[in-house]
Amino acid sequence: MKKKVNLKNSTVGFLFVSPWVIGFLLFTAFPLLYSFYLSFQKVKITTSGIQTKFIKLENYKYAFLSDSVFVDKVTQYLQELIISVPIIIVFSLIIALLLNQKVKFRGLFRTIFFLPVIIASGPVIKELMDQGVTTIPSIDQYAIYQYLNENPDGFINGILLYLIKNLIVILWFSGVQILIFLAALQKSDKQIYEAAKIDGASNWEIFWKLTLPGLAPMIIINTIYTIVTYSIFSLNPVIEHIQKNMFKVNTGFGYASSLSWIYFIIIAAALGISVGFMTIKRKKSYS
Fold it and tell me: Is this entry keyworded Membrane (predicted)?
C-alpha cells in the first residue's frame, strides 16, 4: 500500500516537472548540442536549405589565430569584468546597509534602487547611452577627465577612464544584488549584535567581525549573478561580435557557433576562478 502511494506521488511529481523538462530539451539542450555540432562545420544557407561541411577545428583556429577583433573584444570584456564586478558588489553592499537602517520612506528608497532592474533591457540602455543620460554630467569639463582622455594609453589610465565613462551604467546593474544583501541583513540574528554592543564592540568592529562574515555566502551568490548578467548583456562587445559574424558570408553560423562556445568556456572559467578563490579564502578565514 505504501509503495503504491509513493509511486502515485512520484508520478504526480514527474507530471508537474515534465513541462519544464520537455521545454528544456526542446529549447535549450537541443540548440546547445546543435550549435556545438555547427562549430565544427562550414555552414552555408542556400535556397535548398542549410548545407554543412566538416572542417574539424578550423573555426576555433581562425578565432585565435586570424580574428584579431575577437581577441581584442574578449580582452576588453575581461578587463571590464575585473573592474566592474567588484565595484557593483561593494556599491550594492553599501546601499543595502544604508537601506537596512530605520529611516523615513525606506520602502520608497528601496523601490528607487530596484527600478533600474525593470528597465535595464538592452534597447533601453542603448537609447539612454545615446542621449548621454548614463554619463556624469559635464564630466568632460574636469581637468582629470581631460588629462585621462588625452592620455588613454596605460593600464591605470585606461581603468580610470573606463570608470568615469561608465560609472552610472555599472551602478545601474546593482538592483538585484542590493535586494539579496538586504534580505540577508534582515534575516541576521539581532541578539548577536546586541551581545556585541554589550561587550563594547564598535560599529566598525561589528561590521568586520559579524556583518561581513555573515554576508559571505551572499557575496558569492551576487558575484555569480553579476558575472552572468554582465556577460550575457546584449550590449556586450563579444556578443555583438558574435552576432555580426553570424550573418557574414565568409564566416556564418559555423564560425559564430565556435565563438559562442569559446565565450561560454571563458565565462565558465571566470565563474570558477572567482567562486573558487572566494570559497578557499572563506574556509581559511574560519579554519
Answer: yes
